[in-house]
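Minutes, project check-in
Item: structure for the 113-residue chain
Input as provided by the requester:
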Amino acid sequence: MIRAMRWGTSGSRDEDGENPSASAPTDADTMSEPGDHRSPFEAIRHVDDDGREYWFARDMGRLLDYSQWQAFKVVIERARVSCINSKQQPEDHFIPAHEMIPTGKGARRSLPS
């Protein structure tokens, strides 16, 4: 159901949809292990044509060791409710999408993610 999450892009937007208060990640944000200066979240990060970062929920769930999509989907829905409770628009952070997966004999089908 929800494929992309835009973390770190909350706040007001100007008329071009940009977040003027967004800042670049620091070294502390991207470090995971001594000597490894790349966060595992950086490995699954995507950037759209406008330079905005996003992450696919299924990738995020696997990275966080959720063995089933349904269990992680509950976490996403709770995060959406938290957005509402903190006067944020969930649509600014969670984008519904579908993922095309192979099904056999070269066919593909749409999977809510």
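Outcome recorded: The helical segments are 27-30, 40-43, 57-63, 69-85.
No further action items on this chain.
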